[in-house]
TrEMBL record:
Transmembrane segments: 12-38, 44-66, 94-115, 127-147, 154-174, 194-212, 224-244, 275-300, 321-341, 353-373, 380-401
Primary location group: membrane
A GO molecular-function descriptor: transmembrane transporter activity
A Gene Ontology term for the protein's cellular component: plasma membrane
Pfam families registered for this protein in UniProt: AA_permease_2 (PF13520)
Alphabetical UniProt keywords: Cell membrane, Membrane, Transmembrane, Transmembrane helix
InterPro entries: AA/rel_permease1 (IPR002293), APC_superfamily (IPR050367)
Protein name as catalogued: Amino acid/polyamine/organocation transporter (APC superfamily)
Amino acid sequence: MTKNSTELAKTLTVGQAIGLAITIVVGSGLLVLPGLAYQQVQGAALYAWIVDALIVIPLLVIFAFLGANFPSAGGIAGFLQAGFSRRAGAATEVLLLGTFSLGIPAIALTGGNYFATAVGGGEKTAIAATLGLLLMAGLVNFLGAKVSGRVQQVLAFTLIGLLVIVAVVALLFGDTTAGTGVPPLAEWTNGLPVMGMVFFAYTGWEMLSFTAEEYRNPKRDFPIAVAASFISVILLYLGIALAVQLTLAPSNEHVTTAPVAALLFSFLGEASGRFVGVLGVVIIAANLIGATWAASRLVFSSAREGLLPKVLSRLDAGTQSPRIALVSVILLFSGVVVLQATKVISLQSLLQVAGQNFFLLYGLSVAAYLKLVPRTSYKVFGVLTLLLVVAVMGTFSWWILYPISLLIIGYTVSGLRNNQSKLEELHQNG
């Protein structure tokens, strides 16, 4: 690869891909949503976790197919562009930018809250820690994909093991009568109001798609990374969610900000709660490394395609990574954190909107899949999955207007830029 190449270096192995997938998916969704969902719908929250897990399976099958066969730094936008047109890809890029700019700061804010819980600090401590976590994620990625991939692999398997221990210990030694428990299966529909928010915990695989261009063997490694990470994540989520609503009361002061820390604090005391608080910060740090990696690749790809300024598509000669794009997303995310700190938008709203946006992005991926697959049987599977997505979207609030607006803006701006390019070409030829 030459130094002037516009393609990213192919450095990811299958082991690093699995580690990256796990750390991208597991983050604030695990560390805060079990408590938020539990507070809103009590014990029925567990059913929201289960239904969302079932819903995501066909979506991941589609993601595995698309990532293996159409690897691109553009991720989902690249899928839409391959299936439909550049304007469809551009519209998706704007939606992704609008989604990442809410979801990733929400992840960082969750880490800041866990840090404040661990050290006994207040709101200012949490905000300072949030900005510090974003800076750390930027610095690790600044060193290049090879370094970041190795860090992700080590963190993923260590942290997942520790969190499994937390869930098991809480269920075995905690007071399982302190919470509301799990209601009868007939009441599963009571969990519907939080399904959109809980789905945020099942996002991340779409971020993984932005790294497909950097796999050594994407056709083999991408599906393996998706499947292995899904099994690990589901078991972990259900264990933590069950432990929260069996051993914690909805009125617990930490249930909506640091429920995992509250699990051990409830029966082992302050020291254990602080230990889990530190663990939560490390998990968020790992999650942010992968998330900012994905976001910088989106910005890089969008600039390479002409939607964003070309300067953002420059690659560093040494690491062959988009450092300018990386710095730009860290600054953007930090700005959103400041808005949350000044009460312009709440953490719950960030999670709610990002979760709904990500679900819509899964739907767009299904549409691209329907366009790209050749076999009728595959198309039938895609249609059934799309109907499922549309049905779930019926439970979303008026916030759905936000992603729809982003799609319209992206599609319109891309058309205007395309017309401008044609006029400039005609002028040059004339």
